Description:
Helix 4 links the parallel strand 5 and strand 6. The protein has helices spanning 13-24, 41-49, 67-76, 123-141, 175-183, 219-233, 253-264, 288-294, 302-315, and strands at 4-8, 28-33, 57-61, 81-84, 94-100, 146-152, 154-156, 190-193, 213-214, 216-218, 239-245, 251-252, 270-273. The strands form four sheets. Strands 3-2-1-4-5-6-11 form a seven-stranded parallel sheet, sandwiched between helices. By secondary structure, the protein is an alpha/beta fold. It is 33% helix and 18% strand. The structure holds nicotinamide-adenine-dinucleotide and UDP-4-deoxy-4-formamido-beta-L-arabinopyranose. UDP-4-deoxy-4-formamido-beta-L-arabinopyranose binds at residues 100-102, 154, 173-175, 178, 190-194, 210, 212, 214, 253, 276, 279.
Amino acid sequence: MSKTILVTGGAGYVGSHTVLQLLLSGYKTVVVDNLDNSSDVAPKRVKELAGEFGRNLSFHQVDLRDRPAIQKIFAQTKFDAVIHFAGLNAVGESLVFSSSAAVYGWPKKVPCTEEFPLSAVNPYGRTKLFIEEICRDLRNSDSQWKIILLRYFNPVGAHPSGHIGEDPRGTPNNLMPFVQQAAVGRLQALTVFGKDYATKDGTGGPFLVSFRVRDYVHVVDLADGHIAALKKLSDPKRGCEVYNLGTGKGTSVLEMVTAFEKASGKKIPLQIAGRRPGDSEVIYASIKKAETELKWKAKYGIEEICEDQWNWASKNPFGYGSP
Ligand code: NAD
Ligand code: WQD
């Protein structure tokens, strides 16, 4: 019998791609999202893309903090696991939690392995660290729990169909939505942060521009990482495990911009600015643990990422909404 997964925040960027991969892998999926940072068009498109499996998706526009509404959903359905993308709490026997590379703070060396010391350099990273700790405490206080913490590096790209992708409300925070909006003319230029950064090998002076390096991972690869995590949760062994989800490769901002220009045929106007507070210089993942234990490895590189990002952007220049 197919398993039923509760997906909180399943209308969002990573959530919608993961829900699609879940449906295509034969899971029944119940999405709870208050649409604070997403659109109800996303689950509709996911349903269409899933074809005959689309019938296994149900969507509830509910705030996770609305306890009676959540209790009703738990009373109606017995869930095999919860994947928690949204803000607050959800309870089940097993849980996959969206953590972040932000828990490594400014790493002293790369690639970051899961055993690296953890620290937070901003409030967002601190929330991820806190929730990771709460998950570990939960497991220590009740040995029935099976929990997987997934530390995403930089999720980018979009589903190859171009029907679902990232559509942040208001001004974006991350690089690729900015690049995309500059390409379709919604923004005049991309501000490249980091005049005062060193070169990729750490030897350069302040005149060198933005060699900051990140580990950009295709959102469909990331979504598949959740399927791998769910399979791992089916092991009889209980516990709380943590895995990096990245590619293991570092790419600079300018390499990313060049790849996007190639994929889109558009020139991205650049404006060079000072360093962004809180930005680390170089960070990318060690992927050995995920490869060995989850049998998961990213399939796509920055070329495919940029092609899919552009496909989504050109088909949906205003995301799920209208201008
Ligand atoms: P997103 O904003 O697109 O998705 C989050 C979803 O949660 C949204 O659809 C939002 O409406 C919903 N939501 C928020 N509060 C809610 C509430 N109280 N009740 C119900 N729904 C609620 O973000 P995303 O990029 O898909 O990120 C998903 C998760 O992954 C988050 O926990 C995020 O912190 C984590 N993460 C994201 C990145 C990234 O760069 N995208 C990297 C690392 C970790
Ligand atoms: C990437 C690079 C910027 C915007 C954050 C979180 C991380 C994860 C992903 C959630 C950096 C540069 C960016 C712009 C730029 N999210 N940049 N101009 O900071 O690596 O990671 O999002 O968990 O935890 O910390 O991602 O996409 O913001 O930046 O030059 O307009 O692009 O300086 O080097 P970041 P990002």
